[in-house]
Amino acid sequence: MEAIRRIVQEIVFMCRVRNVQVSDTLAAFIARAVVLENTAQFPLDKELNESDVQELIRMSTERLVEQDSPSLETVKMQVAFDTARMVESEKLQRARQAREAREAQYVREVIETRLKPGNDVESLTALYRKIFNFLVVRADLELGADRPAEREIAAALESVFPRIGLKAFTALPQEDKSAQLNELANIVLGIRLFNRHIGKGGAGMVDLPRKAAELASSLITQMDQEVNEIDTLAQQYVDVIAYKYANNGPTPTRLQAELTNRRQYGAFLSRLDAGFKQAGSHVEELTRMLLAEIDSLKTLVGNRSSVPKEQVYPRFDSLAKLWGSFREEVALLEARQVTLDTLRSFREPYVPTLRADDLVASRAARRNEEAIAGMPVSLMPATDPQKAAKMLEDGSAGVENSSANIAVALSAEDVAASAHMSLELESFCPYTLVQRDGLLLPASIEFVAMYKERLYGFIDKAALEAFVAEPAKYVAAVLSAVKRMPELIYMLRLQEYFPAASIAEIMRQYSQGVVGVGGQTLLQAPRSFQDSCVQTPTHFVEKNIDQSYEWNEWALRRRALHLTNLRQKVTKSQQTNASAFRREEETQVYLPKTTATMTGISTGTAAPISRNYIAGLRGAPDEKMSVVNLTIDPEVTIGKYR
User: Fold this and answer.
1) pTM for this model (two decimals)
2) CA 563 from centroid of its chain's CA atoms
3) What is the arrangement of strands in the sheet containing 454-458, beginning at the earlier edge strand?
């Protein structure tokens, strides 16, 4: 929406006129925070008229030009930190893309080279030179700038890829050429790394493992020291604020704003510290793997003059990949160091009002209380019940407790079982945030409650019991308090309740040049998009099928008899898995019988031999002739019958 763009530009211009430089993101966030605080003056459900726009510009400008304001400095720090992280990511991505584009140019020159028919020595020499140039660029060197390093690369190239293999290389497809070039570059780099480690080369190579380890160690040491200092300072603020509350003095708004600023600064330091420690452990692991590969190569090569390439080339390739990981870690640490420098500019953005005499008095009072009680006292003095009830009602107007809004206090075992879940509000106590006008005190893991599948921590048992009694009101009161202190939206991770006041969303909109859409109000949540599809049939066919229809009259008769029988039943029962006295049924089956299969009997292949003999051809005249049949078994030798 052009109105939003104009409002932001007017705010930036008015601040520049008053010698205050602000970014578009900061101006947009403050404008939305002003609207959030004054919803009665700037309704969220309608467009702003011209007078409302001018009033919004004036109020936002006055907020941005405030001097010595911890609340404003906290918002500035949040915007600056997120901007620095975005710039850090973009810088790393641009550097990676620039390096890949430069290498791709030389790769393209190599794979697009065409040889002339015959023995084209000139073209082969030019191709070999292009491959050499690619290897030099891949090693992060300028052509002709480091002669010793180029001689090392040339020697490694000649040993891995002699000129005699150029013709076979030119016959490969482009994809295979590109893959072989990358593999060749890794092997050449691995050879140089191995030679450097044994003291026979490594010209022009920066000791990336040592550089990464030293940089990570230095940053971790600095972070640990600064985090400890901020934690000590925050505890001093808490002691003084508790002392002032114990004396029933006015609400120390300024001290609480300074405490919020220091806690946000400490949270950013802790986030960077965790990143540095993760990078340090990764560098240690990479160093261990690099030394292991080099030791295995030493064992493999030894004093031999030649080694099978199938054994050494994969290890050289692994060395090169590990070296690339070291290079990425160094680039990441250097980029995050720039982010740390940006954050350090907010180390002392205002004049602190924490006085030494208040600190001494608060510590003396705490020692006296502990001596009287004989045990450590609560971090914050108890709140007056009437005042606490009034604060809660003012912050949760219109919210009523119901049976659905039930919070459950968790035991130590339940808390241990829910260790995978983090505490809401960045582990700060919601009770003190409501009852102490936005005071941020870290919760204790001993006092945890679950409300709507979310965990909330508290500083003591009294705060836990008060929240469990009226959880819905306390959550609403927290959101109401955050509206008055917009710097807490980012710090407590409440962007889901105030999506339009999300710094990340504002930065995304302004980085893309999208500030709004026609008809969008200043605090309307950004539109979300998702992929979807709709399929429409070509021909609609209505299906009028009655699944309960039955045409068979006998089936209808059986159904009628069944219903009649049911109506005559007196006792009805229903059995479920959870029912008591469930009926047990057994089913008996006949096991399959054991059967056998008989095979055929082996017989001979010769058929029975049948012989017919005529008897009575000789002898007396009255003797009659007869035919005698003789059938011989084939197993009996028949030679004697023939």
Assistant:
1) 0.74
2) 60
3) 407-410, 444-451, 454-458
